[in-house]
Each structure stands twice: as C-alpha cells, then as structure tokens.
UniProtKB/TrEMBL annotation, chain A:
Annotated PANTHER family: NADH-QUINONE OXIDOREDUCTASE, E SUBUNIT, POTENTIAL NAD-REDUCING HYDROGENASE SUBUNIT
Gene3D superfamilies for this protein: Glutaredoxin, NADH-quinone oxidoreductase subunit E
InterPro entries, A to Z: NADP_DH_HndA-like, NuoE-like, NuoE_dom, NuoE_N, Thioredoxin-like_sf
Organism: Allochromatium tepidum
Protein name: NADH-quinone oxidoreductase subunit E
UniProtKB/TrEMBL annotation, chain B:
Annotated source species: Allochromatium tepidum
Pfam families documented for this protein: 2Fe-2S_thioredx, Complex1_51K, NADH_4Fe-4S, SLBB
Key words, A-Z: 4Fe-4S, Iron, Iron-sulfur, Metal-binding
UniProt cross-references to Gene3D superfamilies, sorted A to Z: 3.10.20.600, 6.10.250.1450, Glutaredoxin (3.40.30.10), NADH-ubiquinone oxidoreductase 51kDa subunit (3.40.50.11540), NADH-ubiquinone oxidoreductase 51kDa subunit, iron-sulphur binding domain (1.20.1440.230)
Family of this protein: Belongs to the complex I 51 kDa subunit family.
Protein name: NADH-quinone oxidoreductase subunit F
SMART domains: NADH_4Fe-4S
Amino acid sequence: MTQPPARPPLPSDDKRWKLVNATMRRNGYAGHALIETLHSVQDAFGYLDETSLRFVAASLDLPVSKVFGVATFYHIFMLKPKGRHTCVVCTGTACYIKGAGGLIEGLQEHYGIDPGETTADDRLSLLTARCVGACGLAPAVVVDGEVLGKQSADTLVATLEELS
Amino acid sequence: MHLEDLAEQAAQYRNEEAHIEREVRVCVAASCQSSGSLPVLEALKSACDSRGAGSCKVKGVGCMGLCSAGPLVAVADKDCDLNESVLYRDVTPDDAPDIMAGVCGAPVERLRCPTDQPFFSRQHRIVLEHSGLIDPESLRGYIAVGGYAALIRALTEMTPADVLREVTTSGLRGRGGGGYPTGLKWSTIAKMPPGQKYVVCNADEGDPGAFMDRAVLESDPHRVLEGMAIAAYAVGASKGYVYVRAEYPLAVERLETAIRKARRAGFLGAKVADTQFAFEVEIRLGAGAFVCGEETALMASIEGLRGQPRPRPPYPAESGLWGCPTLINNVETFANIAPIIREGGDWFASIGTEGSKGTKVFALAGKIKNTGLIEVPMGTSLRDIIEVIGGGIPDGRAFKAVQTGGPSGGCIPEAHLDIPVDYDSLKTLGTIMGSGGMIVMDETSCMVDVARFFMEFCMSESCGKCIPCRAGTWQMHALLDTLTKGRGTRADLALLEDLCEVVRATSLCGLGQTAPNPVLSTLRYFRDEYEAKLLPDA
C-alpha cells in the first residue's frame, strides 16, 4: 500500500485558498483536475502567480514544469495581474470584418497600451479573445464580463471612461 | 419510470398552467442579454403583475434567431410557435407597459418585427424546435414539450442495437464539420469489448463566426443531455463529459443547472429512469485553445494536459480518454438524436439531400441584414440563405464572398451561390460545412487581407507540436503580410502556394491540414486581387 502524498499547507491564511482546495478535493486530487484547479485559482485571485502554481503542483503531485506548461498553453490563463477593469475585444471573423481592428487601434491610441497590457495606473487591461460567440452584435467587446455589441472606438472609449 | 409517468408529469405541468392563455417570451440567450434583455424581462414581469392578469405569463426563453434585432420579445398564445407569434424587436424596458397592453389588444406597431418574412418562414426547425419557446432553466418545461420521452423509450422499449439502427437509418452525419456518419461512429464504439467507455460532447466551439452550439446550450440544454444519454445507452458507456468553452459562461451555467435537475429527477445518475442503465455527466471547461476542438487534443485537455493532438490511429473509438473507447460528437449532433428516436430514422432521412440528411443550423454573420441563427434543410442554396433568408447585403453594397467553415474552410464567390449546401457540394468548392458559421463579406473586404487574418489565427492557435504547422503557418502569415502591404513579388506568391501544399500534406492534425484552405480558396476565386498587389516584375 502506498501512502497518498502529503498535502502541502495552504500558502497563506487567505480564505480564497480554501476555494482552490475545494476544487481539488472534489476531483479527488487527481492530476487530470489540473485545468479545473487553475480555473479556480484564476477565478479567486484573478491570475496565476508562482506561489499558486507551485501550490497546485504540490497538491496534485505534478511536476511544476507540467503545471507551468499547461498554464502557459491556454490563452485564458494569465500569469500577470489584471487591472481593475478589463476590456476584451473580440477578434473573431465577424468582428474583424465589421471593424474590431479599429476598436483596438482606438484603445491603443487613447490608453497607449497594446493588447495583453495594463495601463500604468492599473486601471484597465486590454485583452483580445478569439470569438466570444456574439457575432450577431459584431464588433463586440466584453467589459468586466459584460458583452457590449455594435461598438465603435468612440462609444467604447466613452464607456471605459465612465468606469470608476 | 415509464413513458406513462412522464406523460403524467407533462400533463400535470400543463394542468397547473391551464389558466394561462398568452405567453410573453423574452429571449435570455447571451446575444439578447448583451443587448439588455434582462431589464426588459424584469419590466415586463412587473408590468404583468401590476395588471393582475392571471391569464398571461412572462417568461425567459432561448434564442429566437434574429440576434441583430435583439432584445426580442414574442407574444403568443400558449403552444404557438415563433411563426405564429407577434414578435417585437429592439425592445427597451420602457416599452413594457405598451407590450402588456397589447397582449390582449392591438399589437404595438412601432416595435413589430414581421414573422412572415423569409427569415422565419423558410426555416425548418428540428435542433432548435424548442429554442425560443421553453425556459432553458426549467426541466418541467422541457418535459411538458415531450422532453426525455425519447430517452425513456430507448431505455424501456429498444435495445442498444435498435437505437443504433435508427441512428444509422437516419443518415445523420457529424455536425461538428467532418460529416462522419454518426451511426457508423456509434456502431464502432458499441462493438468494442464491454468495459469503461466514455461519451464526450464537444462544445468547444472555437470557429470564429460560429455560435450555434452556444445557442443550443443556452436555449435547450436538456436536449443535449438527452442525446448524450441515448448515445451512452447505445454504445454501452456510463460516463460522459461536456467539454465547453470557458468563454461561454452563460452556457456553462445553464448546463450545470440542467445536469443538476436531470440528476435529481433521475434522468442521469445511477439508475436512469429506474432501469439498470447508469450515466453520469460532468462538465469540463476549456481554457481558450482553438486546437482543442480537434478530438485527440480535446481528450488531452480533459485529462488535464496541454491540448495537443496525437497521431490517429488509434482513433478515439478504440483508444480515447484514458485509453478507453470514447465517443465524441458535437453539440448539434447530440441535439438531433431525441427527434430521431421520437420520429424514427426514416423520417429524418426524408429531409435534406441524398448525401446529407436532415437540417443544419447556420450562424449568419458579417455584412448581412439579418444576422443570427437559422436552421434550414440540407440542400438549401447559398443564394437562398444569403439573399432571401439573410435579407442580402445592407447599405446597397454588392456581395463579394461568403466564408464557411471558419479557419478550416474557404470563401465562395458570387458565381457559385446557387449551389445547394451540403457536405459534399461545399467540398467541391474547396471549402467545408464546418460547424456552420457563415460570414458574408461585401465589396469593401479585401480577400488577401481576409486570408492573412485567418493565417494569423492559425499561426497563433497552432499548438506547436509539429513543425509544418508551427513554422509553416508563421511563414505563410509573413508572406501574406508582405503581400497585403503591396511589397510581395511573383516569387513570394509561388512560395506561398508551395507552402500551402506542404502544410496541408504534412501537418499532424486538422488544424494544420486545413490552415491553408482560406488561402487556397481565395487564390482560386480571387487570384486577381493577389496579383494586383504584386510588385511589378523587375
């Protein structure tokens, strides 16, 4: 009989780790629950830092390299903290045909950041997504989780400026 | 549980709602929600309450199709479908009192969206038959329209071989894009020795411009679960996974609700409908990788690995998830199963064309008047879809091309619009059905630029496992970039064509093998646009 590996202690007394632990427990600490667990970390903390990747690796008894490999393979996982607000511009075909490029240019011009970057005051992160499935409303953006359709660079900047 | 019990439950629900004569249906699928349908729903509910009218019910329903006109509200007699309802478009919460006043009186003309237009009347709804009619979060609502009857019929009156026979007779082909005969796929897995088998629903709709699966999951999630359970019974599986994109949070939420309710009601779990058949379903979230739509990559992702494909054979039917036989079908394929069992395979086979049976859901997007979802019989011509159902090109511009099949597909020019749409005819045009996204482009679109867009997509979505795809798409993108900027030479164009051939022939999986398609098809039909951008020969 092999003993199950000892679970590492929680990295801190931050309550959010308990959510992460719950996800792993629900999946029986199986290695194939890695992606679910990373989703759970990102939902709780907003991004994946080295501490969390190491903690997940130790908990699921996986090499850190593998955890890091999976975290960097998928587009959704972020290794850097996001700003207070996020603006995801859909770059699917329908949005592209209807002017998603113009939206990104408008934001680049107004905020001086490229997709994947965050403004210096940590206020806004500009991201892109491969089709959010709201093609009927193209060009679409997702601001703080809310899909906004039929955008122009001007309406989008105005919306973002209104955020606190 | 027997069919009679189910019929009793349905009758009971109908009894409870017997006093309701008219329904006000508000679309609460993602697209209309983005246009603000939730406040509209709230406003209508409170307007309904304040009238104290007991004979009218306001409810949230799934997608009604015409996404560009959202938020959509339909007022209809109970049991009447979309075509017989009074449909309102671009509704705001302020319109609620007027709409409620119009429920029993004259309709509100300023908001009307005619339902006798071809967009609605030319459709043939099988997959979407409940979409826009039932509340996607209500299991009882699904049972009331005959839901889960096909599953119980299969479990109590049919053997797995009977189910396989019906599905084979129906001639249903995989709706994910490949078009592999569903009956054949199921039979292969059923023939594998007994033991652990899996059923996987591929809901990783990564094709940009496609949103059919999203709409089905958000509008009628139980339909997909029912199809999966029937499939599991037919092939002898006891465990299922739905691999769904994390970009579709609403679809995930509705699916979770549906699984929970179906399990509690005994349509999933240890003894499904009091028979010996056991079937558990779990959701697995994707994490934003287009390549995970490929079945071997999808399985790797379910196993918690990077979503990288592996060579086939062995096919998943033989060695899939954790080495066990695995059935992978797309959302729309599973959604077709319940009606096939209900009406019989022959009925399904009578719809569509010789080689492609049934209907297909298409997502119309791009430069077209009516953007949204349509379901038409296979064999409907592209011209019908775009000019009649889609309403043609807005702003008086001219049609240029329609892109089907996403990054694996190609562009079809005006000259071929009269072709009937099915798996085989599209292939002869150098494109594919794909999952059913159709993106219409008008004369303002530059086809070289479109080809570059798709190559940029394939380049950044390549998983990097095999060299032809990893390096080939990068090179092709660089060449296309040079060409779009007007700095390319004739030699560059020749090199691009060569590379297309190499990447197509030598890549490991579908992503790389089809990545050159948008380039090849634009070269085939719009070569003059490429040549116009070349530098003059030195």
